[in-house]
Design goal:
Chains A, B: It catalyses: tRNA(Asp) + L-aspartate + ATP = L-aspartyl-tRNA(Asp) + AMP + diphosphate. Chains A, B: InterPro entries: Aa-tRNA-synt_II, aa-tRNA-synth_II, aa-tRNA-synth_II/BPL/LPL, Asp-tRNA-ligase_1_N, Asp-tRNA_synthase_2, Asp/Asn-tRNA-synth_IIb, NA-bd_OB-fold, NA-bd_OB_tRNA. The structure is a homodimer of 455-residue chains. Chain A is of the alpha+beta class and 455 residues long. Helix content of chain A is 32%, strand content 26%. In chain A, the strands form four sheets. In chain A, strands 6-10-11-16-15-14-13-12 form an eight-stranded mixed beta sheet, with helices on both faces. In chain A, strands 1-2-3-5-4 form a five-stranded mixed beta barrel. Strand 8 of chain A pairs antiparallel with strand 8 of chain B.
Chain lengths: 455, 455
């Protein structure tokens, strides 16, 4: 089993080593050939005879050789192993690569996003692309760790559900033996049920939404970070916990991913000691005062409003994140708690940052009658969601929670242009690994061809 | 926000406290009433006046009171808080419960499994039921932690897939806009792709299988623990890692869940210093020698064979776990590596314990041509799995991996009778939260009734 990574070679000058990885670049000087060998830890220069020129980029090889200090005038400050090189004694090819469709050895891959995704198994090997998913796992892990430190318990929420009380049109349908089932758009009902079991819970979960739009910030399949907590004094407890956890996540990123932030020329968002908290109506007034755009009676923020209030938060409160609270009852799900002191508005909040929404949360109704009544008023047949109602039938504490999209956090921390870049294998209306319209067009054509051949 | 748990009260004798939780039992002695208050940490006795008798089991309450030492003759050794009680000053009802369908205050809930599941939101609150999911999260967390310690990187594998190369009939179909898509039965293809990116990877993932059977050990939705590793010297590296991680998991259970193991009157399986490793043919010979049952030419072990070889491992090797290796090529997926020294048999293994399979794994083919050829021989249209082939087209190292079912581990560690007990919200042919045939029968009836009413 591989035991040595290329990044570890500088401390082994004068030692014989065995390295395994992929051929990254080949520089053929005829008598002497240089290759850069890459693995997940970085790259190292290997020097050898003309045989090395027979290798191809992305061939998988094993190199046995001597770690040597390079002459001072030949060191490369741009890579951590730039002061040494491997003098190859023996090279074994473990696996051959075909010619690449594009060059992946530059700092940036110079192709369009669709091409990047069409060649996902290759493009993910690029260090800058790969780093996106290193930081994403730090984010997900920090979410878990930060909540565990506060006594939250993880649980596994189901993907297949039998009813669609929460969603409407944007739900995927599954053929479930002789029944019709659906894919969960969120673990909402289950995390509330679990408050009755573990009081404070979280779940990292695949959520599936049949988003019929092709924006730069929606996916049909996302990894969401959900938390829910019982025995709250008020909805402020929930917002405080959301603030704690996003700061905890930033802390972990800054601790573990300095090099990745540098590679992407960015930093984690600057946050105020307390993230500003504004009622929606107040935010709309600020936007009106700043821009003259009068959306003061709208039930939600438009994308340009989100960008404007984020600008305000930076300029006036030195914070790249801002909470917007008190969305109108009509814009929030039926289980959202109405503010007794501000009727018509809910004890709910969104967290915005760098121009878009990161998180949504709030207090939930814990009274069975009120839930049934609210659902009925919205035309939702909540009686179909038997286990959900059951939780309230047998006593539920006051509770609330919140939900992050891990891809949104990744995207905005790294300032990526498109959320598809922040998903390993992004799915949208037109893509499941491959671009579906193209794929089926080609596939149909092939089918017809093969039919012709059969004749 | 709640800050004090019932389990913390014994160290607060003489102090005024505020506790929140559910009413567990009520003992009405007229002038004096005792209630047991429960939360996720345990129970504590509350004593008060006749007002307490108005409460119902599972009411959610807040108790303000004084922690008092009980007289010596009234202590209860069976609970950790049995030496104290809370003298209630003030009780506030946060939420009311309806009468329960069955008693949940006993050591065991005395109802059938279907009833337990029909009332899942309630039955999960029982300490012994709840504990199953505490241990399950310790198992999942240990899987993550143990592999991270060995340099594995976590990744998020998709649920929706476009092709079904791996599965056959047992795959769920999804209506995906204008296309037909499927639910992933395993993260197999994606974890192999990710070996090309991070070399050593793991994923905790929902896997969906349209199991048309109603056994005690199959679910349609499971949380599987998958790992895959590149640059192996041989398949033995993979089996060694599987052995390491299951022992690591047992270590974490023994460290963190002593009380739960006691509650379920069990221990983690006893394992030998090295878990015995037997070729399938050898295992069949042993079974034949021990029982006279001649399955020596069968391509797999029958359930009774699995039980018998587990008995052998305990009796002859003092190990409750045993690896069975070298399943025939025909019984393993097309990507499985054939043993060059034992043609017709694969470099694959299952881990059996306490009578059933816990894990399956092996080395995979990393040569593109061979994969395409094998798939073709099995009638699999692998060219549809474009990203999978792409990984091999651009150089893949020798690699292998394994897959556990978290519910299987939970079930067998706790000696549960049915795997449904080891899934929070188990799904099978006939159940998604509710029992589907019953539900739809009632629902249809209601529909007809409402039609009648409309007339």
């Amino acid at each position: 089993m591989k035991t040595l990574y290329t990044s570890e070679t500088p401390k082994l000058i004068g030692k014989d080593v065995t390295l395994q990885g992929w051929v990254w670049t080949i520089r053929d000087h005829k008598k002497v050939v240089f290759i850069d060998l890459t693995d997940r830890s970085g790259i190292v220069q290997v020097v050898g005879g003309p045989d090395l020129a027979k290798l191809s980029v992305e061939d998988v090889i094993e190199v046995k050789g001597l770690v040597k200090k390079r002459p001072d005038h030949l060191t490369n400050d741009k890579i951590p192993t730039g002061a040494i090189e491997i003098e190859a004694h023996d090279i074994k090819v473990l696996s051959r690569s075909e010619p690449l469709p594009f060059d992946i050895s530059k700092d940036e891959i110079d192709v369009t996003l669709p091409t990047l995704l069409d060649f996902r198994s290759l493009s993910l090997r690029h260090p800058k692309v790969r780093s996106i998913f290193q930081i994403q796992e730090v984010i997900i892990d920090a979410f878990r760790r930060g909540l565990k430190e506060r006594g939250f318990v993880e649980f596994q929420s189901p993907v297949i559900i039998s009813q669609t009380a929460e969603g409407g049109a944007e739900v995927f349908e599954v053929k479930y033996f002789n029944y019709k089932a659906f894919l969960a758009q969120s673990p909402q009902f289950y995390k509330q049920i679990m408050v009755g079991v573990f009081e404070k819970v979280f779940t990292v979960n695949k959520t599936l939404r049949a988003e019929p739009s092709m924006t730069t910030r929606h996916l049909t399949e996302a990894t969401t970070l959900d938390a829910e907590m019982g025995f709250i004094d008020s909805w402020i407890d929930v917002m405080d916990t959301a603030e704690y956890i996003i700061k905890y996540i930033f802390g972990q990123i800054n601790y573990a991913c300095k090099d990745i932030l540098e590679q992407h020329k960015t930093t984690t968002p600057k946050v105020a000691k307390e993230i500003p908290r504004l009622k929606l109506r107040k935010a709309q007034q600020i936007i009106f005062d700043r821009t003259g755009r009068d959306n003061r009676n709208e039930p939600d923020l438009e994308p340009e409003d989100e960008r404007e209030i984020c600008k305000w938060a930076i300029e006036e409160r030195q914070s790249e994140l801002v909470f917007i609270t008190h969305y109108p009852v009509s814009k929030r799900p039926f289980y959202t708690f109405e503010d007794p002191n501000d009727p018509g508005y809910t004890l709910s909040f969104d967290l915005l940052g760098r121009g878009i929404e990161w998180l949504t949360g709030g207090q939930r109704i814990h009274n069975l009658k009120k839930i049934i009544e609210n659902a009925k008023n919205r035309g939702i047949d909540i009686k179909k969601s038997e286990l959900y109602l059951q939780a309230f039938r047998y006593g539920m504490p006051p509770h609330g929670g919140f939900s992050f999209g891990s891809e949104r956090i990744t995207m905005k921390v790294l300032n990526l242009d498109n959320i598809r870049e922040a998903s390993l294998f992004p799915r949208d209306m037109e893509r499941i690994d491959v671009h579906l319209p193209t794929y089926f067009k080609n596939h149909e054509t092939k089918k017809e061809n093969s039919k012709t051949e059969e004749k």
